């Protein structure tokens, strides 16, 4: 510009020497030139300075493409790293209804027209819809908005369907990524894992409880591309990195979990149970190896489980009156406090009327019996247990219960875990004072029952109940590792004596033929508790259970089975075979060495 | 420039300064004849240089674009392969699920035995009561559903028999080769 201006000025004197009209013309030319230049200048400043930011933004917007970089939600894995819940990429097939028109396709070298109806039928054949359904989607979208440029044909389809649709080369169809959750083992541990909503919001179980570990953050990538979609070399790329979620490492063994679920479900269906659960716990570490629930949920298809209550884990979230399995706790407390020994004899009547006005019955009529603690547990005598239990004060027994973890949710951190009900001593009435000795008048979750037996099995040391080993970060470090320090609840001697008593129960109980595991020494106890009717009284239903551990000479595994209201067989003969099969499987799976020494023989009468 | 010393000298002899200002300029004659040839030479050099730069830049840009297309092509095939890998990994996880394994094992006629029996090597004692497998799980439909397995084929004994028949024509011609370095197991 400056060049042009100077040449115009240089030109002026040469013209001025010619004539007057010539000089005027020159002046006019110069003025016009200046005016034009001024216009250009103003425009230049306007574009380069005044509107610069917005124009740059527009131009980048036209060239650049923003892409979401999906962070991957962490996996939930079992004790050996087998994936129980993982993230996979699914795809949504979308279309532009307003552009859904006839297009040309080359078939065998000839150009043929493909109508919208034909194309819809082709898509439908791949996605499992009818062509009419897709046409209806198109017409509905256009009815709502004649310019409609977006509608879903199918959501969350896998890569095979996506490729089949892409191979149709229909110009008005598109696809988008849609990360999804998949549970390769179906309902195995589905009760514990939980599930996500369609929008990816955690709804239950570990998915919800461990969301802080699992959650990922999506990133974004922006780059510039040409008309053919290829990235322009050297164009600016802005990138926000996606952050993947951490992996939740559980203590569950998926193989065992499947076996327990299958065995439990078979027995629960056979006996017509309302619900049932089974817990397998490592006696030395407190780790949960399997927590099975019936009925359960397949997180891949949550809708198939109609009752919302069946979509979680009752083992964690529903406490119940445990019944006679709780007698092991009372017996251990009595032995630990030293108020009775294994040789102490009592007389157990059919009906016991203590001085405080309570009224205790046994389940079946019998004459007065001379029993030891062992005999009381073998016969599961309520009156006998009451006579032993009242050797301790209510407060003493309450303290033992608290130490065993009754009335407090366990350490698993499972969402909505039920800690059970254990009222303070001053709220106990006369009947409750005795009922709490044999597992009525208080509630425990299946986990807490297992934990009581774990304490007895582990020389009196209660270990924290563990379901999650921690959150494994991308660099392999584990965070949120739970505490592994146990607490001494019983003396080692009291624990071992209780274990011996329970071993006698295993050998002499009326269900002993149903839970016999040849080659191993086992300690176990049955329970049959009346279930509340929900109106403050008891219903006709029973919660039948078996809890125990093996091998009794060096306890390694605790198994606790509870079956609620098995209408076809409402005794502990219902859970006993489940206990037998599950315990056999556990011992076989973990190669527990068969017991060498023979079981102790304790007197049950005197 | 405006120091005191200079000012003193101006005030002392102002006339001398004025005469030196009016000294006439002389136009220095140029030597066009001498510079003509080098100018053409320089122009040619410059033009050739520019041409070379333009050609080089064109080639470079073609190269870079070619690279961009190659990258785009490779990235697209990478994402295709990654999708295939994810898809087959998913299939593998699906068929390794316990439900699938159990259904296929039972389809092939296997039964489970939940009655472990052990042989203690120290004294040859048999721990447990040996009994034929009751097949506690056998025959029972899977009670642990897996929606992912819908439509997956389950092996059956029949199909395996058929497979065995068709495979029967392949005769085993030689004994299995035992690596020379491997010592025979000694039983004590």
How would you characterize the overall build of this protein?
The complex is a heterodimer of chains A (606) and B (188). Chain A is of the alpha+beta class and 606 residues long. Helices cover 35% and strands 21% of the residues of chain A. Chain A folds into 3 domains: 2-50; 89-180, Penicillin-binding protein 2a (Domain 2), CATH 3.90.1310; 254-589, Beta-lactamase, CATH 3.40.710. In chain A, strands 2, 3, 6, 7, 10, 18 and 19 form a 7-stranded mixed sheet that branches. Chain A has a 5-stranded antiparallel sheet with strand order 12-11-23-22-21, sandwiched between helices. Chain A has a 3-stranded antiparallel sheet with strand order 1-8-9. Chain B is built from 5 helices and 2 strands. Chain B has a two-stranded antiparallel sheet with strand order 1-2. In chain B, β1 (118-119) and β2 (126-127) form a beta hairpin. Classes of the chains: A alpha+beta (606), B mainly alpha (188).
Large-scale geometry of chain B: rod-shaped
> Per the principal axes of the C-alpha atoms, what is the gross shape of chain A?
elongated
> What is the radius of gyration of chain B?
49 Å
Helix-residue proportion of chain B = 40-55%
Q: Helical proportion of chain A?
A: 25-40%
Features:
heterodimer, A: 606 residues, Penicillin-binding protein 2a (Domain 2), Beta-lactamase, 3 domains, five-stranded antiparallel β-sheet, disordered N terminus, B: 188 residues, mainly alpha
Short recap of the structure:
The complex is a heterodimer of chains A (606) and B (188). Chain A is α+β, with helices and mostly antiparallel strands.
Write the layout of secondary structure elements.
The complex is a heterodimer of chains A (606) and B (188).
Chain A: H1 2-16, H2 20-50, H3 52-63, E1 64-69, E2 76-77, E3 83-95, E4 103-107, E5 110-114, H4 116-127, H5 131-144, E6 151-157, H6 159-166, E7 173-182, H7 190-193, H8 205-209, H9 211-214, E8 219-224, E9 238-240, E10 247-250, H10 254-270, E11 275-282, E12 288-294, H11 314-317, H12 327-337, E13 346-348, E14 351-352, E15 360-361, E16 369-371, H13 373-379, H14 382-389, H15 394-403, H16 430-435, H17 446-457, E17 461-462, E18 468-472, E19 478-479, E20 487-488, H18 492-508, E21 523-532, E22 538-550, E23 557-564, H19 576-589
Parallel strand pairs in A: 2-10
Antiparallel strand pairs in A: 1-8, 2-3, 3-6, 3-7, 4-5, 8-9, 10-18, 11-12, 11-23, 13-16, 14-15, 17-20, 18-19, 21-22, 22-23
Chain B: H1 4-12, H2 14-21, H3 32-95, H4 98-107, E1 118-119, E2 126-127, H5 157-167
Antiparallel strand pairs in B: 1-2
